[in-house]
Amino acid sequence: MLNKHSPVIIVGGGAFGLSTALHLSLAGYSDITVFERDEKIPSKYSAAYDINKIVRAEYEDEFYTQLALDVIEAWKNNPIFNPYYHQTGYIVATSGSAPSKARDTLQKSLSSLTNRPAFRNEIKQLSTKDDFRKYAWQITGPLKGFKGYFNRIAGYAHSANSLKSAFVACAQRGIRFVTGEEKGKIVELLYEGKKCVGVKTADGKVYKAETTIVALGAYAASLIPSVGNFAVARCWSVAHVQLTEEETDLLRGIPVVNVRDLGFFFEPDPATRLFKLCPLGAGFVNTNKSNGISLPPPDRLPPPQDYIPAEDERKLRRLLQETFPWMANRPFVDQKLCWFSDTKDSEYCIDFVPGTENSLVVLSGDSGHGFKMMPIFGEWVVDLLQNGKQKLERWQWRKEDQRGVDWGSSVNWRIGETRELKELIVEKEGMVKARL
Ligand SMILES: Cc1cc2nc3c(=O)[nH]c(=O)nc-3n(C[C@H](O)[C@H](O)[C@H](O)COP(=O)(O)OP(=O)(O)OC[C@H]3O[C@@H](n4cnc5c(N)ncnc54)[C@H](O)[C@@H]3O)c2cc1C
Ligand SMILES: *[C@@H]1O[C@H](CO)[C@@H](O)[C@H](O)[C@H]1NC(C)=O
């Protein structure tokens, strides 16, 4: 077991890295340094650099339903996080033209809740437009063929503000932060024999540690290439509509609405008046042909900046037609691709890297559902260090090589086929030419 006063390095100040720093400190670890490539936290490279993320307990797997219920309590009770949790409720639905896969997933997520006492009086089935309007009276669209349910014990959290708050709490506890493209970006892990003994930053400085924890999200394989054998960097598109003050006031308090086959949206952010939409599909990967590993492009945004795939835009405009038709033809602003780390079975990876004599830990494979766990995630890393091994099989390092296998569309809750980022760039160039 690790001595609590020996140096620990955490690489990456995103959702998992910050939660880990906080909980290690609470558990008595006293010498913690976090390295983050962006100048400041929240980092613009973090998948959680965003105005909101869904917090919900619907999972097909009881294990995660329980963790999500636990974390919702933490969201409510921990003063570091509770200002940023908004329990607006959650509408899950399918449109009249949804494929059967979308309807099946909805049924499964509903049944994950209905047999739990915590949800006994908290779920309402929705079958008519009037049913939906009971929970979101602002909806004026036709909701043609919409079916679904409302769950009161769910909502969203302001993710960038949560990162910032965790960062401040960590700094107050004496955790050191080294940030910036030169000082804070780690370019290499250093080894002596099999043991990882520290890190090297872009400006060439060396930092030593007894334990190094890599929490790079989608970028994990940039420092530990073998992570790329079982976790791929994948991105989803995000778009926003800029609302006026009145429009923001009008939509205040609406539940998170997730239409399985079209996408989801949140109540507008009061500070920026942005209304965020996300078409959850199989997304895009960025595979390097020579080694089969998918990593985000080196800069924050790939060449098609301020651009989301035409197909995603169509889905989101249909979603608005059905719900808030007055918004359906408004320009999409702040469009971006958001990168996360995806595994075949949507399980996280929280484990020692094999063959490193427990000197190197990887936290990755959030699979697009990791942010909500931020208030408690770090407790699991404390357990790992104390136990000296990952006892839960589901979170262990994966030995199988998944490179070149497309599982993107086999994940139940995603609709569509995975595509390569290159195709998107070609699509964008075609659009630009067509406009000229
Ligand atoms: C569009 C989209 C929607 C999502 N919606 C939800 C949702 O509704 N609910 C939910 O629970 N989750 C959601 N997620 C997933 C959630 O964002 C992630 O699970 C979470 O951010 C993962 O945390 P992480 O710490 O592993 O990675 P990140 O938060 O991405 O952090 C990685 C950090 O590493 C830093 N870094 C990278 N390279 C280096 C380097 N070389 N040196 C130093 N630092 C480096 C980055 O700057 C970044 O700060 C969504 C993700 C996306 C993309
Ligand atoms: C692709 O991988 C090869 C081999 O690891 C590497 O040399 C090359 O720089 C990578 N290309 C890109 C664009 O990252």
Automatic annotation (TrEMBL):
Its cofactor is FAD. Pfam families: DAO. Residues 8-384 form the FAD dependent oxidoreductase domain. The keyword Phosphoprotein does not apply. Keywords: FAD, Flavoprotein, Oxidoreductase. The keyword Flavoprotein applies. Belongs to the MSOX/MTOX family. This is FAD dependent oxidoreductase domain-containing protein. It comes from Coniosporium apollinis.
